[in-house]
């Protein structure tokens, strides 16, 4: 098969989306925050091995979003990442397992479970996630307790300046309208 790779910018100036014509993840999504967490994914490890400036590699569907710390030259780093992906993609297993989760849940990082979390995820699946995924990222629900929804961002959204305020407020407004008028949405710590 002729592998094609296209690079797209994201709203986050520190993240680029590398889109392929083959899948990189068959089910759910996975964020790697460093090379040490990539033992199950040689492609992610190869990306982290390119530079200490790389802070995250996010795998979803047919793309990989790579986030750097903001100090690297994107032109040089982009070419290295493209070359590494193309050299390793044929050996890549899009059904790879991870240390963090051996499940096949579409929301594998969710800490809390229950009908409220399922309803919140359903609303986010319909309203917010498609736009975030188009931009090379995602949002994960970690907990819901006492009218407070705790979330964290993945991929390009994780360090994007607009995700911390604008997107978070939009998520809160959508959930106020479609879930609970008293809900508050906050960023979760340590994810």
- As residue ranges, the low-confidence spans are 101-110
Tally of distinct domains:
2
Main sheet overview: 5 strands, antiparallel
The CATH architecture of the largest domain would be 2-Layer Sandwich
Q: Please give the count of helices.
A: 5
Short description:
This protein has 191 residues and is an alpha+beta fold.
How would you describe this structure to a colleague?
It contains five helices and eight strands. The protein is of the alpha+beta class. It has two domains: 5-91, 2-Layer Sandwich (Ribosomal Protein S8, Chain: A, domain 1), CATH 3.30.1370.70; 115-187, GMP Synthetase, Chain A, domain 3 (2-Layer Sandwich). Strands 1-2-5-4-3 form a five-stranded antiparallel sheet, covered by helices on one side. A three-stranded mixed sheet has the order 6-7-8. Strand 6 (137-145) and strand 7 form a beta hairpin. The longest helix has 18 residues, at 161-178. The protein is globular, with a radius of gyration of 17 Å.
């Amino acid at each position: 098969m002729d592998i094609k790779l296209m690079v797209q910018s994201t709203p986050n100036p520190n993240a680029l989306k590398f889109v392929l014509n083959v899948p990189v993840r068959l089910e759910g999504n996975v964020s790697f925050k460093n090379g040490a967490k990539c033992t199950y994914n040689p492609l992610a490890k190869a990306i982290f091995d390119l530079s200490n400036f790389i802070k995250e590699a996010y795998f979803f569907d047919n793309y990989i979003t790579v986030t750097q710390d903001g100090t690297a030259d994107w032109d040089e780093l982009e070419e290295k990442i493209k070359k590494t992906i193309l050299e390793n993609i044929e050996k890549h297993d899009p059904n790879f397992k991870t240390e963090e989760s051996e499940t096949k849940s579409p929301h594998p990082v969710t800490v809390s479970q229950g009908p409220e979390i399922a309803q919140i995820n359903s609303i986010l699946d319909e309203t917010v996630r498609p736009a975030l995924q188009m931009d090379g990222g995602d949002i994960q629900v970690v907990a819901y307790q006492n009218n407070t929804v705790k979330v964290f961002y993945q991929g390009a959204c994780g360090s994007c300046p607009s995700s911390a305020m604008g997107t978070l407020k939009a998520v809160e407004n959508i959930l106020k309208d479609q879930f609970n008028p008293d809900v508050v949405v906050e960023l979760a710590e340590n994810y």
